[in-house]
Amino acid sequence: MTGAEAKLIGHEDAWASWRAAMQGQRMHHAWLLAGRRGLGKAGFALSAAAELVAQAGVPQPDPLSHPDIILLERPPATSDDEKKREDGKDFSRKRNISVDQIRGMQRRLTTRPTLGLRRAIIIDAADDLEKSAVNALLKSLEEPPAGSFFLLVAHRPGGLLPTVRSRCRQLRFHGLTDGQLANLLARREPDIKPELRQAAVEAAQGSPGMALAFIDDELAPIARELRDIMRHGDADFTRRAALAAAIGTRPDRERLLASVRLARDICAENARSAPPRNQARLIDTHARLVRLGAEIPYANFDPALTVVEIGGLLAEAAPPKG
């Protein structure tokens, strides 16, 4: 089983709703694919778009190169990153999907589809649209060209404008159970130790993509140190030092982002089971971790200080002694 296949597990309900709509008299023109990160929503969108635009008797290219599937996502941050993408290397992206990208898509919609009668537009993710891009997109959602269908991937649908949500039919993607995740990892990574598999299940909270990333990026030591800080605090900074060692001396932005996501999820996990007197503190810490995670990809930052801040936020949220 490949990583891509693993991320498509658990989509049975979404496929049933999508295919029932395709067989109906009138297919809704805009769909909101909603659920937490790592559930495979973008992969579903590409596969669903390929089914939507396929024309009987006409050979169909790969969805990523299909002329009737428009994929909008955050572009490379610089010309160097553009070259890295072309070379198949890791690259950094800009902060948002821009209004120029939306307008470019709208210009394409003035022409007819190339291979059939339908065209699909995937926005991955709608959370990344800049404000002016959202306003421009609304015009297309309000008056969609004939044969055009929108699939908006959303990790945090509640953050989208109500005017966007109201024009879309929602497909909700749910996480897997711990048992399903454990079985998936046993098939996908048969050689990993049981304790690492269990740590990945606990960290992923139902997300196959997050579970696989946890193993591939060797995040178990980071998760262990974060949980230790959350349980016991860190009055003398020794646990923050251990966290820094687990993250590494020169972590890149992606590793720091993964650490923030782990800290955020651990905080949310504790908030769900905490007594009411402690929940407000945990909710506030979760919000601060969300803001920190939003800043890391774009702001100038000191990795060492960022690690200290992550650990410090969890230390503040640890239950009081005594």
UniProtKB/TrEMBL annotation:
PANTHER family: DNA POLYMERASE III SUBUNIT DELTA, REPLICATION FACTOR C / DNA POLYMERASE III GAMMA-TAU SUBUNIT. It comes from the Bacteria. GO terms for biological process: DNA-templated DNA replication. Residues 59-96 are annotated as: Disordered. This is DNA polymerase III subunit delta. Residues 80-93 have a biased composition (Basic and acidic residues).
